[in-house]
Amino acid sequence: MEKLLEMAKKVSDKAEVYSIGYTHNSVSFKNAKLHGIESKIQSGASLRIIKDNKLGFAYTRNLANRQELLQNAIDSLEGEVEANYDFPLTEKLARIDTFDPSLENVLSTQMVEESARVCDLLKSETDAEISVSSTTYTETIRVMNSCGTDISGESTFYVMYGSLVFPGSASGIWGAFLSKDFRQMPENILNEMIKLYTSSSKIVEPKGGKMKIMFMPNSMIALKWRISIGTSSKSVYEKVSPIANKVGEKIFDERITIHDDPLNDKHPGARAFDDEGVACKPLTIIENGVLKSFYYDLDYASKLKAKPTGHGHRTTAWGGDPISIKPVPALTHMIMEPGKKSFSDLVKSIDRGIILEGALGAHSGNIPNGDFSIGVSPGLYVENGEIVGRVKDAMVAGNIYEMLKQVVDIGDTLYPSWGTAWLPPILCDNVSVTTKN
Amino acid sequence: MFEKLRAIVSKVDADYADARYEIKKETVISFTGQDLTKIASNSTDGYVVRVLIDGGMSSVVFTKENDVEKALLMAEENAKLIAKTIDKPVKLAESEVVKDTFIPELKEDPREIPMAEKLELVRRCNNIPLEHKKIAMTRISYEEVIREKHLVTSEGSEIREDLVTTRLSGEIISKDGNLIQNVRVRAGGSDGFAAVRDQEKHFEERTAIAVDLLKAKPVQGGVYDCILNQGLAGVFAHEAFGHFSEADIIETLPAMRKKMEIGSKLGSDVLSIVDNPTIADQVGFYKYDDEGVKARPTQLMKNGNLTGRLHSRRTAGEFEESISGHCVAEDYRYAPIIRMGTIFIEPGKPSFEELITMLGDGLYILDAKGGQTAGENFTFGAQYGYLVKDGKVGEMVRDINISGNLYKTLKDISAVGNDLVLSKVGGCGKLQMNIRSCHGAPHALVKNLVIGGA
């Protein structure tokens, strides 16, 4: 890496080397039986050079041929991609606890035993078709640049997903558990899954219309995605954010507060620096319903004459291969403030409505506008405060900027949701539901 | 390279092993509005090894040659652990031993086109929508992916194949006050750079639709009879039906597996569906899959009867059905899984005009905007549509999202047109992305579709 940076400095005004190494071991159980084990040991390096305010970008899996990598970056300078920013000098970083060395020694046998235990427990309580996956992941990231930054960080993740699939479908009740070390899936998660599954086994065919909808961690992606796009500096720069001029204005119900809190190492996925070497710090996006800030990487901060917020990450909406992705503004550790109501209190407050456990098609539709129109997968139908069964062939549609003004209540428990977001259930009113009846 | 892979395979004490090495070359040129945001060519590489020991199968992926010993040890230990734990050993279906090198013939090799020419082509197309004052933004990219694959199996197969994919695609975003609309543009193929040339007319047509959408009304939610255009009916074939033809999905869902028995009458009489990765020049084209099995056309449904499904060697063994050559990986970072190649609804007799007359009142909806499926339920979006009254196409509508039940909808397809079109750009996310999975259909008349709306 040092050698590559030295070579790059000689042919450019500014240079940055990003490298990542990761190992991953994943055990999957399907239909409550061991199905497969996959392992990965991967690494790679990515180079950015800036010359005359133009960007060159290149990447490789190994540093066998530094000259070729450098030449690819030099060749891409010819495209004249504007880069009016400096790489940061980052020396001091917040101390955060993201790494548990014990995870590196976890054996496949331990993961198989734990997955089998979870399968047996779920099987003994339900007639569901059961899938469980258990994955250990260790990652090392290093960022060096021509300003003198040379920082690195190690992280460990352990994640277990369990699902209770309604027979005849592939939709069901999902539970997720994330941790920095290997430990048993907590019983309360499993018990919640069992309770939701058994209470919704009957199929009901309610009439459509406007009703209350409770977004659960798995369907929250429909909201999370649109909030992330709407508050991204990239959307602001591209003039496709409907809230571009609304900083300081109340855009949601006052109970909605959203932070991106990379330094919160209580949850796995915390980061002390972003993928461009900018020090991370907590950022309030929405506070009591008021839009407080957009989030920036180096590029869009320079384009919009703002300060980078430590949100330059090598990711896409679908994840992707970090070495081949140029940094873009991305939220990494989104946390929504929980409310005060327990899940069962929230259910009791629904006269007629749907608990949306999963959403189909959350990624399609007019996302920048905040619109969504999603299939229920599954949707648990509630009448007079009780779950009476599950709805099939129904769609829930709305616009987050309208709907999140009509919040009935927010749950008191944070759940991991789609990557490293931590969100509570949200109950909204007057949401449009289309059914076949 | 074969020699190196043979050495890896011979190091493993297994009943079966295969090793794949790939060099992946990517060129990307991206515009966001007037801004060129990315232009780069790069090459990466890596290995995937799969081992079968005593009926336990596992895989390992690695990128550094000096990790080979460690990687093989992990794969062996995991395979043995699986063998010890499962009650039914994995049995791979028989497959022909192949020694072949297949380099596709290209209409202009993209590797020989200078970057400056590629950039000029993308810039020219990107400027077409941007000249219109109602177009707020474009996101247009040229992407070229070349997989140079080498596969060696312990049974003696040695296959070298190149997959060359080009595409010029993205979205055009129109804006009027607070209303934002978007449509997609798509061109590309597996047969060379020529597939992305001469797209100016396509960009002009899509720009006009994006602008027209600003005046269209949102569709009213409800249950409609609909005509799906080729792009949308193709997505239905892929999302709603195709995924449940993939044996690895239904393998571990006992109730679905029972319902999807070969011979079951699941669709209407007019519905016949094939997956055929052997049609040269189509995006879904390949000669051998990533297990070294020769690709072959597979009739999945004939006149509404389930006639076949897509297999890997493992699932063909499990289901005791014929291998189909549909086990494909995104690239060297993944072990292969079952994927569609070119799935399409076979054409029927009625013309588009006849279908519209048959529809009478309903919606004519066009072009896909993302889809997803979960067992019997599916959802996908249409980019735009028109109200149809008394067999006449009327005003434009927007914000159309469809949801349905697989089994009901297969029976609700009441007519299939004579105008088959296959998609020019592929893309299917199923744990991995497969850019070589494409689809097609003629216009199709579908009854009782649930359309979400305010």
UniProtKB/TrEMBL annotation, chain A:
InterPro entries: Metalloprtase-TldD/E_C (IPR045569), Metalloprtase-TldD/E_N (IPR002510), PmbA (IPR047657), TldD/PmbA_N (IPR035068), TldD/PmbA_sf (IPR036059)
GO cellular component terms given for this protein: cytosol
Pfam families: PmbA_TldD_1st, PmbA_TldD_3rd
One GO process term, biological-process aspect: proteolysis
Residue ranges occupied by any Metalloprotease TldD/E N-terminal domain in the UniProt entry: 15-75
Domain Metalloprotease TldD/E C-terminal: 209-434
Top-rank taxon, per record: Bacteria
MF-aspect GO terms: metallopeptidase activity
Family named by the database record: Belongs to the peptidase U62 family.
Protein name per the record: TldD/PmbA family protein
Species whose genome carries this gene: candidate division TA06 bacterium
From TrEMBL, chain B:
Residue ranges annotated for the Metalloprotease TldD/E C-terminal domain, each copy included: 222-453
PANTHER family per UniProt: METALLOPROTEASE SLR0863, UNCHARACTERIZED PROTEIN TLDD AND PMBA
Cited SUPFAM superfamilies: Putative modulator of DNA gyrase, PmbA/TldD
Name recorded for this polypeptide: TldD/PmbA family protein
Ranges for domain Metalloprotease TldD/E central: 108-210
MF term (GO), any: metallopeptidase activity
Superkingdom classification of source: Bacteria
UniProt family annotation: Belongs to the peptidase U62 family.
Alphabetical keyword list: Hydrolase, Metalloprotease, Protease
GO cellular component: cytosol
Pfam families with a match to the protein in the record: PmbA_TldD_1st (PF01523), PmbA_TldD_2nd (PF19290), PmbA_TldD_3rd (PF19289)
Database matches in InterPro entries: Metalloprtase-TldD/E_C, Metalloprtase-TldD/E_cen_dom, Metalloprtase-TldD/E_N, Peptidase_U62_metallo, TldD, TldD/PmbA_N, TldD/PmbA_sf
Ranges where the Metalloprotease TldD/E N-terminal domain occurs: 17-79
Protein's GO biological process: proteolysis
